[in-house]
Structure formats: structure tokens, C-alpha cells
Backbone:
């Protein structure tokens, strides 16, 4: 039986990774849903207030525009929202017969995914591709590409629009 670490970034596209596990894994497989989040930053304005922080993968300010008083509050809120989202998906997977859990950490995506894969003894890391090609993919790189280059775990890359 395999243990899958499914890396999710909060985007709708990243759910393709969870859908891939649904299709290929045995129903009693261990599935760890994982998100690595950037540490939110404050940008003080001249008025002394902070401008809204940005949710990774979302061009609009956080889940609903809000001002953040300090980094600790932003991290607590982000942690709570992310774990709620992951735990909801984990509950859906458990209802389908998988042994699913949720985990998250703050830091750079590739480093945190690799640490989580080690911590959870993953056999396979599952990610979704956002479909960037050409110059954009070259300049931006991708988490999937970096995980593959790291050569520490087998990586299953689920296409954004899997059939």
C-alpha cells in the first residue's frame, strides 16, 4: 500500500492532484493533504496602518479584504483557514474510504513539501501542474519541476484538466 502526499496550493487547479489520487490509489491508502504557505508580510502605509496581505495563488487580498495588525495574527488566520480547507477535503476522502489527514507549514513550497514527504514517509508526492509553458514556465519555474529535479521522491504530476 502506498502513502501519498498531495501538495495543494489553495487554487482550484491544485485539486486536480487530489482527484488524481482518487483515481489511482486503493481506497484504504494513506493520503496526506498538505499546503506550504508563504509567511504573510505587512506593508506599512504612511498612516501607520497595514495594507492587505495577499493569499498565495490569489490576486485579490486574502480571503476577503482585511487589514492585518501584525504578522502573527496573519499567520494564525492563514493557518486556521488553510487547515479548515484541508480538513474538509480530508473528510471527503475519508468518506470515500481513504485514510486521509491534513497538514500544513509555512515556508518555501518545494522545501516544505519535501520536509512533509519525509515527515509522513510518503511513497509518492502528488502535485498539479498549472499548465504554464514557454517563457513563463522558464522564468517562473514550477514547484512540480523543482520537486522532480530534487529526485528525493517519485512525483506524480496531475494535469490541470485531467480526463
Residues:
Amino acid at each position: 500500500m502506498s502513502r501519498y502526499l498531495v501538495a495543494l496550493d489553495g487554487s482550484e487547479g491544485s485539486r486536480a492532484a487530489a482527484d488524481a489520487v482518487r483515481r489511482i490509489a486503493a481506497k484504504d491508502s494513506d493520503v496526506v493533504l498538505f499546503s506550504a504557505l508563504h509567511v504573510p508580510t505587512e506593508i506599512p502605509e504612511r498612516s501607520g496602518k497595514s495594507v492587505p496581505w495577499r493569499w498565495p495563488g490569489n490576486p485579490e487580498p486574502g480571503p476577503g479584504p482585511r487589514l492585518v495588525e501584525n504578522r502573527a495574527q496573519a499567520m494564525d488566520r492563514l493557518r486556521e483557514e488553510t487547515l479548515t480547507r484541508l480538513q474538509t477535503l480530508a473528510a471527503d476522502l475519508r468518506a470515500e474510504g481513504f485514510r486521509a489527514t491534513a497538514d500544513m507549514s509555512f515556508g518555501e513550497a518545494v522545501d516544505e513539501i519535501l520536509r512533509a514527504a519525509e515527515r509522513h514517509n510518503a511513497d509518492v508526492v502528488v502535485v498539479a501542474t498549472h499548465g504554464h509553458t514557454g517563457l513563463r514556465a522558464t522564468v517562473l519555474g514550477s514547484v512540480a519541476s523543482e520537486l522532480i529535479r530534487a529526485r528525493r521522491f517519485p512525483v506524480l504530476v496531475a494535469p490541470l484538466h485531467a480526463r
Notes: The domain at 3-40+70-158 is CATH 3.40.50.620 (Rossmann fold). The mean pLDDT is 78. The longest strand covers residues 30-37.
